[in-house]
Design a protein that fits this description.
It is built from seven helices and eight strands. By secondary structure, it is of the alpha/beta class. Helix 2 packs across helix 7.
């Protein structure tokens, strides 16, 4: 185990487990986003033992198990950012502050843990948040979230969502976040953007828009290329 944890990143082509099958639905944007995170780590050539991936609850909670050689934690719903913030602060006090903390969180978790995201931005901790935003709670049946667009059809809004969605980037801009970006899961430069976020010396968030193929595509006229 220790040998894996200290494996050198030199010439490393992937941080993902070899031949590991992704557990997501066919066509799910989570495939693209997770591969983009991996490509960003390869680009930055980080030592695996200096990377910590903290996952939230939901479909995104399956992401951390796909990586090998890095540290990973699976937290309770909405608390991933708070947990990673604690890890980063402890690393800066007790160690050398070289650990790169990456949070993977869905829109449901971001809604539940909104204050943790705001506090992390205000404190400017060196934590990178990748927000997998598919506009609903995918694992529990397709209920609407605070990020569901107006008129968006979900299991709990069959005639369309009537509540204006949260603009996460606007919220965190008000909290003085140092790096904010919004992309779609199929953007060709997604990995480059994530790499920039990880390299940023402070709080960073990349919101990645996608459509849940199981619950969002049916009943909604919006298409992936119209998300941004």
């Amino acid at each position: 185990m220790a040998e894996v944890a200290t494996q050198s990143s030199k010439n490393r082509k992937t941080y993902l487990k070899v031949n590991e099958k992704f557990p997501f639905c066919k066509g799910c944007g989570h495939h693209h986003i997770t591969n983009a995170i991996n490509a960003a780590l390869v680009k930055l050539d980080l030592e695996p033992h200096l990377v910590n991936i903290t996952s939230d609850i939901g479909c995104v909670g399956l992401v951390d198990t796909l990586f090998e050689g890095v540290h990973s934690f699976h937290t309770t719903h909405g608390r991933s950012t708070a947990f990673a913030t604690g890890v980063e602060i402890a690393d800066s006090i007790l160690a050398d502050s070289k650990l790169k903390n990456i949070v993977v969180i869905g829109d449901g978790g971001a809604m539940i843990g909104l204050l943790h995201l705001v506090n992390a931005a205000q404190m400017n901790v060196d934590v990178t948040v990748i927000l997998y935003n598919n506009f609903l709670f995918g694992m529990t049946g397709g209920q609407n979230s605070s990020f569901s667009p107006l008129d968006f059809v979900t299991a709990t809004t069959p005639t369309g969502n009537i509540i204006p969605p949260i603009d996460m980037l606007a919220v965190l801009k008000g909290a003085n976040a140092g790096f904010l970006a919004r992309k779609t899961a199929t953007d060709t430069d997604l990995a480059d953007t994530i790499a920039e976020a990880i390299a940023h010396p402070g709080f960073a968030l990349v919101e990645v828009l996608e459509l849940c193929t199981e619950y969002a595509v049916r009943g909604n006229v919006i298409r992936g290329n119209k998300l941004a």
